[in-house]
Amino acid sequence: MAPGFVDLHVHLLPGVDDGPPDLDATLELAGLEVADGIDTATATPHVASVDVAEIPARVAEVNRALRKEGIPLVVEGGGELSARGVGRLSPAELDGIAHGPAGARWILLEAPLDGAVATLHRAADQLRDAGYGIVLAHPERCHPLFDHDMGGLRRELALGSLAQVSSSSLAGLHGIRARRNAVRMLRSGCAGLISSDAHGPRRPPSLTAAMHAACELGLTHEHAHALVAETPRSLLERGLRPVAHIGEGAAGCGRYVAGSDLSEGRRSFGAASAAAPSRT
C-alpha cells in the first residue's frame, strides 16, 4: 500500500487548546484524519496553551490510545508558535517543538490573524538567527501579507520560509478573502504544502478535497499530491534548509531544499511538482 498523506498542522491533543476537549474527541478526529487518507500527523497545539515539556507525554498517550482502538494514524509532537511567543521560549523549548534532523530543524510559525506583519517578520528573523527553518502556518489568513503583489509573503519566502496553506481555507471556512489568497498562492507557486489545521468534526481534515481543488486550479496531479504527501513527509524525515534567494519560475516565490546537505544534489521541495502551475 502506498504511503498516505501527511498532516503537519492539526490540533489533536485532548484538552489543551481549542481542539478536542477530551480523548474521545481526539480519537474521533483521528478517525477523520484516517478517513481523509492521512497516515501521519503532527499534533500542533498553540504553544501558549501548553507546557512544551508535557507535549511528548501527551503525544505518547494519544498514540497508545490510537493503537488500542486500532486507528492507523501515527502522531508526532510539535506546536504552533505565535509570532509574539517566539521570544518567550527558551532554546530547549524551541527545540522541543521543532522537527527534522540536526542542521535542518524547522518550526511551525503562525501567521498572525490580526495582520501584524512586522511582528511576524521580526519573529521569523529571530528563528532564522537561532538556526531554524520556518514553515509559515496559514499565511492566507494574514491578509496584509498579500498587499503590494504579495510583498510581505514573498519577503518571507525569499528568506527561506515555506508556506503552508490550510485546506480549511480552500474549503471557504475562513471567508472569501482567505480562500482567494489560498488560490492565489497555489496558482503562483507560493504554496509549499497543504495541511488541514483541523480542530474537530466542525473543522475536519480535508486534504483529499484540497488536492482535488488544486488540480482544478491547473496544478498537475503530481504537483498537488506532493503538497499533501511527499513534501510534508520529507519535511519530517529530512528537515528544511532554506535557499536564500528568489527562485525562478515560481513568480518570485522561494525555493526549498530538503535536508542539510545540498552537495548531494537533493531535489527541491515540491520537485515532484516542479512544473510551473497555471496562472489562469
From TrEMBL:
Reactions accelerated catalytically: O-phospho-L-tyrosyl-[protein] + H2O = L-tyrosyl-[protein] + phosphate
Protein name, UniProt field: protein-tyrosine-phosphatase
Keywords: Hydrolase, Protein phosphatase
Family matches, as Pfam families: CpsB_CapC
Gene Ontology molecular function, alphabetical: manganese ion binding; protein tyrosine phosphatase activity
Keyword Hydrolase: yes
InterPro entries in alphabetical order: Caps_polysacc_synth_CpsB/CapC (IPR016667), Pol/histidinol_Pase-like (IPR016195)
EC number: 3.1.3.48
Protein family membership: Belongs to the metallo-dependent hydrolases superfamily. CpsB/CapC family.
UniProt keyword annotation of Hydrolase present: yes
Coiled-coil positions: none
